[in-house]
Amino acid sequence: MSLPLVVAITGATGVIYGVEMLNVLKELGQETHLIVSEAASKNLEIETSYSLDEVRSLADVVYDNKDIGASVASGSFRTRGMIVAPCTVKTLSAIANSFTYNLVIRAADVTLKERRPLVLMVRETPLHKGHLELMSRATDCGAQILPPMPAFYHKPESIMDIVHQSIGKALDQVGIEHNLFKRWHGNNRKEQVRESLRIAN
């Protein structure tokens, strides 16, 4: 039986990363436990056509961000990890400093202390030294910093192609198989295969 994945959506720009991740995970049959911050709820209205209820309906279990007694607030509740998509600098700061003032931060802190994968899709630019130091500190605690930076080797044709590539990179970190983007196999893959066969013969 597959363990659930905790998904948190916080108030940085790019809430579509979290929403589309839920869509993908639902299609893959992966159980998801969702926390949406108060600021993220506002950004849903600004940046997408999704209502909060529609986003909540994509998850198997939904928690209030103020519910620090929720199951995901305890290390005894087993999960396969947690992804924060997108992750605000405020959330990053709280995680890096173990300042567990809401459920998103508490669930992230639990994920770290239980040595489970924690992926933070930090959405901010440009970055000053304080931001970088927070990333370093969170990394020292065991978090994986994965800003949604677009790649182009898979030749994206739409914004959603770019979104999917970043989501796919995050899912790789928690061991979830997907086909969200074309993986790199070298720029001369056919020639390499032919050469390998020639040498073998």
Structure description:
- Strands 3-2-1-4-5-6 form a 6-stranded parallel β-sheet, with helices on both faces.
- The radius of gyration is 18 Å and the shape is globular.
- Helix content is 44%, strand content 13%.
- The mean pLDDT is 94.
- It contains 8 helices and 6 strands; from the N terminus they run βαβααββααβαβαα.
- It has 201 residues and is an alpha/beta fold.
- β5, α6 and β6 form a beta-alpha-beta unit.
- The longest helix has 15 residues.
Secondary-structure element order, as H and E?
EHEHHEEHHEHEHH
| Rg for CA atoms | 18 Å
Helix-strand makeup class: alpha/beta
Instruction: Give the averaged pLDDT, no decimals.
Output: 94
C-alpha geometry: globular
Helix tally equals 8
Count of individual beta strands: 6
Largest sheet: 6 strands, parallel
The helix fraction, in percent, is: 40-55%
Strand order of the largest sheet: 3-2-1-4-5-6
Distance between the termini: 44 Å
Uncertain spans, ≥5 residues at pLDDT below 50? none
The portion of residues forming beta strands comes to: 5-15%
Keywords:
single chain; 201 residues; alpha/beta; six-stranded parallel sheet; 8 helices
Task: Show the helix and strand layout.
Elements: E1 5-9, H1 15-28, E2 32-36, H2 38-47, H3 52-56, E3 61-63, E4 81-87, H4 89-96, H5 103-113, E5 118-122, H6 129-141, E6 144-145, H7 159-173, H8 189-200
Helix pairs in contact: 1-7, 4-6
